[in-house]
Amino acid sequence: MGLENFQSLTGIALVILLCWLASEDRKRFPWKLVLGAVVIQIVIVLVLFGVPPAQAALQQVGHAVDGLGTATRTGSAFVFGYLSGGPQPYTLADPQMAPFVFGFQVLPVILVVCALSAVLWHWGVLKVITKGFGLAFQKTMKLRGPPALATAATIFMGQVEGPIFIRSYLDKLTRSELFVLMAVGLSCVSGSTMVAYAALLKATLPNAAAHVLTASIVSAPAGVALARVLVPAGDGEADVPFELDEEKKYDSTIDAMIRGTTDGLAVVLNVAASLIVFVAMVALVDQLLGMLPDVAGAPISIERGLSYLFYPLAWAIGIPAAEAHKGGELLGVKLVLTEFTAFIQLGSTPGDILSERSRMLLTYALCGFANIASVGITSAGFGILAPTRRPEILALVWKALLVGFLATCMTASVVGLLPAGLFH
Questions:
Q1: What is the pTM of this model?
Q2: pLDDT in tens, 395-421
Q3: Rounded to whole angstroms, how far apart are CA atoms 291 and 279?
Q4: Nearest 5 degrees, angle CA 142-CA 29-CA 235?
Q5: Where are the domains of the chain?
Q6: Which of 164, 212, 238, 284 has the smallest count of CB within 10 Å of its CB?
């Protein structure tokens, strides 16, 4: 281990300090839970990347993602032709410069994975996995059964879809438990978007699929612990039995495939619309800022401002000082413009600007739904699932955004703390 590894300890300390400063009750700091969450994160990463059977499983995940990508391109090329990666109708001057159209080459992956997830749920595969993770969270993070189950479901299904499985329990959760679910939803990503992120990073980050999958799983304990720091556990959290609510029940495999595709279409439209609007708004603000005089020989822009604002955090998670401005910029882009935009920029950043280690750490730091657009999604989704608690939800959602953003940074710091050779 070198100085760069110990540098990441600063990130862990900084994240915990920021959450403690924002806590509703600083005297009730759950230090055992926070320390335990860091240990759990380290153990999960060491097992996944250091134990041969787990390494083999992660490699298979990478192959599965490649297979999904190939199958998706076949289906989308049938509909959209060369825009989705099909044969070009003209000769390219540079074959390496084949057009990349995000809407036709990445978003279709979400459709396919949503349909596949619905089928696996109908077959019972995802139910078993979700219950297993729920039991693990119940035992290790001291969560009651229902929120533990919803936390596990959130890792695979998404920020609003996860709590659906305990819908009948939502009115009975304490304020702290409700906050945990909101925060974890913003700390992780869904299975459908994991595959899309891996597709964006595949060309520039070795074993991208393994890193993205690990990031979403490992960020969940961080989200739980940091949420408990901000809103400490309440009274009356005695454990209760739990079962999956059958909110997602399909009549047949075909029914699951069709309804999964329909659900996926809603996700695709939401992602596409959010990207269009937020990128356009930032471009509009940049045009206004461009009217101001240059500062230090360069025009003022949102991305430039974000690079300075988040420079200390980027350095703290383990990114070298020479690369921390770009790292800080990407962290800011993730918060303001969604993680999709940040991953697109990360994937297109040249190797002379970001080293492979920095690119890996940023993959973990960006892999979460904590962005301004998701505040609206979380507020609306939880408000529908638990309408009687809507005032609480609206009061907590910005704190949940803080936890979600910092949880992925804490995960990146934990990964940065470990020897670089572990990931090769």
A1: 0.84
A2: 999 999 999 999 999 999 999 999 877
A3: 19
A4: 55
A5: 3-85+96-423
A6: 238
